[in-house]
């Protein structure tokens, strides 16, 4: 299909050839999410945001891909002086190409992580922007429930909340809240085969690769999943929604 959107990719960790290959596979738009693993200083995140908004955006454009950026404090890279990042987020949300906050969320569910998430959700609510929220590989039901609890208490509009790395264990929680399932395609999680077998349950979702170089990953997982669904005879209208239109509507791209 044409116009594929990868709704969650860590573009600063992607080699240039990765962008080229994504473009050749039909990817036209990507959402670059923030993460700097183990960040100790606020300036580290500011430099990270700047890199995505300059070099990464330029590299994407050279390959015919439109990069949109989500900024924020990832739970696996929270500096000691994280409130300074929170204070700066409104200025970033005014910049061209910034579409919301992400990747934010809980990893271990500590009080500190909850505080950081809550403050970022307050900013997102105030400015009416969508958020892309992380879920960890462990304690997924408990972490997802806590995430939803915090988002509801802040008053976030559920339809602007992507709860990512969704799978059969948490998709019903996401749907019951009214949030959007982030459909990360990878072998140790939501595979194309699993997606096909439960496509009706995932049809409100947005496909993504969650590409980074922090672990084995495939920047082409989204177009490969699309091709698998097409060859398997999945309804074209559902494929188009999860691979393009749901993300375009949610992020205004």
Which terms summarize this structure?
single chain, 253 residues, alpha/beta, TIM Barrel, 8-stranded parallel β-sheet, 10 helices, 8 strands, metal ion binding
Question: Would you kindly provide a brief summary of this structure?
Answer:
This protein is α/β, with parallel strands linked by helices and 253 residues long. It contains ten helices and eight strands. The chain has an eight-stranded parallel beta sheet with strand order 1-2-3-4-5-6-7-8.
Query: What structural class do the secondary elements suggest?
Result: alpha/beta
Helix content: 40-55%
Number of strands: 8
Beta-strand content bin: 15-25%
C-alpha Rg, in Å? 17 Å
Q: Give the CATH level 1 class.
A: Alpha Beta
GO molecular function: hydrolase activity, acting on ester bonds; metal ion binding
InterPro entries: Metal_Hydrolase, TatD-like, UCP005295
Family: Belongs to the metallo-dependent hydrolases superfamily.
Pfam family, one: TatD_DNase
Question: How would you sum up this structure, described in words?
Answer:
The chain has 253 residues and is α/β, with parallel strands linked by helices. Helices cover 46% and strands 17% of the residues. The protein has helices at 16-24, 42-62, 83-93, 111-127, 140-154, 171-177, 192-197, 199-202, 221-231, 236-251; strands at 4-9, 27-33, 66-71, 98-105, 131-134, 161-163, 180-184, 206-208. The mean pLDDT is 98.
